[in-house]
UniProtKB/TrEMBL annotation:
Keywords: Cell membrane, Membrane, Transmembrane, Transmembrane helix, Transport. It is a multi-pass membrane protein. One of its GO terms (molecular function) is transmembrane transporter activity. The keyword Aminoacyl-tRNA synthetase does not apply. Transmembrane (T) component of an energy-coupling factor (ECF) ABC-transporter complex. Unlike classic ABC transporters this ECF transporter provides the energy necessary to transport a number of different substrates. The chain crosses the membrane at residues 26-53, 73-96, 108-131, 151-171, 246-265. HAMAP family: EcfT (MF_01461). It is found in: Cell membrane. Belongs to the energy-coupling factor EcfT family. The lineage of its organism: Bacteria, Bacillati, Bacillota, Clostridia, Lachnospirales. Pfam families: CbiQ. This is Energy-coupling factor transporter transmembrane protein EcfT. One of its GO terms (cellular component) is plasma membrane. Forms a stable energy-coupling factor (ECF) transporter complex composed of 2 membrane-embedded substrate-binding proteins (S component), 2 ATP-binding proteins (A component) and 2 transmembrane proteins (T component).
Length: 266
């Protein structure tokens, strides 16, 4: 399960998506997530599917690697499906006591499942094709206008970047601790829910100790380098929009225009 978590990882490849400005990918991801809730009909999902899988193909990130990250959120996925399946009123197809499955519930459960899957795939694709440093610069630039109302934009972007950077490190540390505990006779796979929860204690304690130690080392390193936030800081490679970035904005506009047009017509 630990190896299946791919959130926050960067997949190096030579593709147009990798070379896009991080601001384009951030804005594009946000617009794609919003677009998933603009429609509720079959053709809207067809257009979203073509758009998403087209970008995945262009990114050159293996589809199996992207789908691998869905395993870590399978419980949320199943809970969403079951909740919508049994709690949506409408034409009853099957009932047992207070449990009822309706035609409307099946339809909403399928659509919500697709939306949740596409939301995770689209968000993961952004981290797969953007390095943590570029993501930090993009976040800081996109949130730049908030500086006028005294929002610490640079600090927020830095915290998010550090969090994303630490995810793979902590996952690797967790895997090492699990292997060490398993070699000493620990069992993480068998037993009921309570037993499995108790078996996680020998894993969580050293993991938290390691995380706090790494955080303290990072804080000391930043302090030793006289880090004092983003005020007055410059960048070695300032972000610039290129032709491919403007073309990407055009593709996003066409995608949103098609969805809005379908909503009007249907």
């Amino acid at each position: 399960m630990i190896r299946d978590i791919t959130i926050g990882q960067y997949y190096p490849a030579d593709s147009v998506i990798h070379r896009l400005d991080p601001r384009v990918k951030l804005i594009g991801t946000l617009l794609f997530i919003i677009s998933l809730f603009l429609f509720n009909h079959f053709w809207g999902y067809v257009v979203a599917s073509i758009y998403l899988f087209g970008i995945i193909k262009i990114s050159k990130v293996p589809f199996k690697f992207i789908v691998k990250g869905l395993k870590s959120v399978m419980m949320i996925f199943l809970f969403t499906l079951v909740f919508n399946l049994f709690m949506t009123p409408g034409t009853v197809l099957w009932s047992f006591g207070f449990l009822k499955i309706t035609w409307e519930g099946i339809r909403i459960a399928i659509f919500m499942g697709i939306r949740l899957t596409y939301l995770i795939l689209g968000s993961s694709l952004m981290t797969f094709t953007t390095t943590p440093n570029n993501l930090t610069d993009g976040l800081e630039s996109v949130m730049g206008p908030l500086n006028k109302i005294k929002v610490p934009v640079h600090e927020i972007a830095m915290m998010m970047s550090i969090a994303l950077r630490f995810i793979p490190i902590l996952l690797e540390e967790t895997d090492k601790i699990m292997k060490a505990q398993t070699a000493r006779g620990a069992d993480f796979e068998t037993g009921g829910l309570v037993k499995r929860a108790k078996s996680m204690i020998p894993l969580l304690v050293p993991l938290f100790v390691s995380a706090f130690r790494r955080a303290n080392d990072l804080a000391m390193a930043m302090e030793a380098r006289c880090y004092q936030g983003g005020h007055g800081r410059t960048k070695m490679n300032p972000l610039r929009y290129y032709k491919r970035d403007y073309l990407s904005f055009g593709v996003m506009a066409v995608y949103l225009g098609v969805l809005i047009g379908l909503n009007i017509l249907l």
